[in-house]
Fold these 3 entries.
Entry 1:
Amino acid sequence: MRATRSGTRERGASPRGQAVVLDAPRTFRLVEHTPRQPGPGEAQVRVHAVGISRGDRDLFLGRRPAPYFRYPVTPGREWSGTVVAVGEGAPASLIGRKAVGEGLRNCATCAPCRAGETNLCAAGYEETGFTLPGAMAPTLVLPARHLHTLSPDADLTAAAFLEPAARAAAAVLKACPLPGSRVAVIGSGALGLLAAQLLDAFSPSELTVVGTSPDRAELSRRFGATAYRTWERSSGLAGFDVVIDAAGGTTTARAATSLLRPGGRLVLTGIPAGGAERLDPAHVVARQLSIGTAFGASSGAWSYAVNAFSAERLTPLELLTHQLAVEEFERAMELMSGGDPRAGRVLLRP
């Protein structure tokens, strides 16, 4: 570790390589990466792996709604890595630690932040990989207070899934399931299956995953589901105490209300594209349904997910089907856009 004239403390040389820059929908370039030294209170992380989320795909295709993006930008909000340098005022003890980090920036001082709702910071929306430089680059700089450190023996490849796990945790915590509840999760992607695995810890009497592909049945069961249905075979599903819509589709929220018992609880997560079917207020009120939402993940949800991962209650590595070099970004976008029916979660390695 050495001190520089700017007060930055670091270990070894910052890696160089290539970074992805999205200039506009479907328009990207690979550029030589110049690591930025961390400023006061910041940390620089050497990126081990970065996942590609539906949000990244929507950003690439130009489908992400305003104001949740800003071009040009280096994408990548799902990442894991090792802290290699810290700026003035950040703990030097972070250097050399394996870590993941929160993407939503927050001021830590406004009323929502002080109430624990750091994902609703009154300072406005800023997020790694969408409005701020993301992790599809050899290094990433972010506020050190947004880091969550991991054990020295943590699997950094698996840890790259902790960002969607934190969003799943936010939905599960909002759902407040009780032991013995009948629970359903809509969506058999990473968010839905990670939510199922977290819900399994609450000992539901039934945990049904509803997806679009029959091929996800066995994987859903390995993530804790007691049953798996596709929408085509969902006739008769009803009476659930809790439903989490982890698909965020244009029709799934409205469909989810039909799965609930009177007095049941629905949690919506994910931002659907424009044109989503509206919920019927009369249906919601007459059946006294409770509807909650989860936008991103608060610091508390992040801690919950990291603790579950450390306790081996989350085992996300089974979701991974492809690991590609960052230079293969275009191929990764093809995979995430349905170019290969066998594709699950895709990781890039800077």
Entry 2:
Amino acid sequence: MTKPPTKSAVRKRANGVESRRRILDAAIEVTGERGYEGTSIAAVSAKCGLPPSSIYWHFKDKDDLIAEVIEQSFQTWLAAVRLPGEEAGTPLERGVAMAAEVAKSLVEAPDFLRLGLMLAMERRPQEPRGRTVFLQVRDIARQKVTEVIRTLAPGLDEQAVRTLTTYAVAGADGLFVQREILGDGVDLIEMFQLHARMVYEAADRMAAESGGRHPDESRQELPRTP
């Protein structure tokens, strides 16, 4: 029979979890201020108040730490990518509501996208693990957007879905970068809601051009009685 953990073991584990959280929180602050190149273990150590040896106990190196920051921030973002049910309104209203939640999550935890875009646009002889992690989670995000488009605009063919997915993701990136440049001068939630409407209108046009039904078209007009 397995013995229950001792109080000292539980306390040690709790301290380890707390230390890891402090390190990640500090890394998020440092990378937000200095970017990837300006981030160092020494800077993270100074920010969190833990010695470098504690950081190296949890993370192999800076790149391992940055990769974990991206992964955790992505999970926060991913939790917001939930399409409201049909009771929330029309497909357009549901898409706009989801876009607002996604934007809110990026305002509160922007690190996965901020650091990820920074790393994705750089080329190094040895690719940082953080870049690899970002490209992986990026693919998951793209799949989620594709699923949403298919749900809200079932009349689209696969080529149109791929085109709209690319447009939706690229537009979201651009809005995020614009906010990074201008700061609070850009209401990211409002911009994402506008972007969602434009994507929906594009889906509407594509469906009409291909002979598909409008996503809001829930019933056909009944023939008039003579």
Entry 3:
Amino acid sequence: MTAAPSFQRVAIVGAGAIGGWLGVRLSHAGCQVSALARGDTLAALQRDGLQLHQDGQLQGAPVQAAASAVALGVQDLVIVAVKAPSLPALASSIAPLLGRHTVVLTAMNGVPWWFFNGFGGERAGTPLKTVDPDGEIARSIEARHVIGGVVHASCSVDAPGVIRHHFGNGLIVGEPSGEASERVNALAALLQRAGLNATVSPQIQKDVWYKLWGNMTVNPVSALTGATTDRILGDELVRGFISRVMLEAKAIGERIGIPIDQQPEDRHAVTLKLGAFKTSMLQDVQAHKPVELDALVTAVRELGQLTGVPTPFTDALLGLSRLQAQTLGLYPSAQ
């Protein structure tokens, strides 16, 4: 009988808000945490390690930080928590972290490159050009390594290596195939020991899609308007537009086997309970960082084309958001 994975050696790829939060929590659970970083973040981690403001306390965690994966070596667990636009260029540099049994947990927003791995019926195995245009991610991170993750927590970066947790403590994990594997159960157990509300999903794509169902609208609308979520959903016309986009995504989900048993108004009520907050995309625009439009919106348009679902409202949202981001230099300009 094979021993359950121990996940002793853990590398964080993307030690920002979510990656840094998870790194501190796992360090306190006894893991040997390292981080692939560069620039000011690398310097801060090498000097001070990771620091986390949570529940009125400042928690520190030692971390071995390096600019090269070769310096960190093979890991038991690699947590990929980068923004989606940076992953295609970064993926090949992750290879030295991956051994035969290494698990790669994705903790990212939007539709992932592995979405149709072992899922989707007749569409199983279909690559998504909008999130992995040249197939570089799929080549660099083989499907057998991947466990999907959906984060339900809000964190921000106060300074390089200094993370602030705001609310939420949930992390859903699941094999893309839906298998209840030994390794996914062991991973959930580790995350629970780290103090997270971790659960195993029998269909992680459905959890990805449900989170996307809210993010794909409120995020880009906030980036366009500069408004917090309460003001966005408090405007009757904007709320109506968002609902129409969500109905398109709901129809796509039904076609690919992940129906959502709710209406847009049900999801609006959930979001409104969180109060006034800036979405991650608005924070990125204000910090002049690339925006995650492709994983959140363009991928939905691609899925609409794959399934034959018309997406005129999604297209309008994408066109306006893309034009704004291009104008600000935060998204590649049309060739």
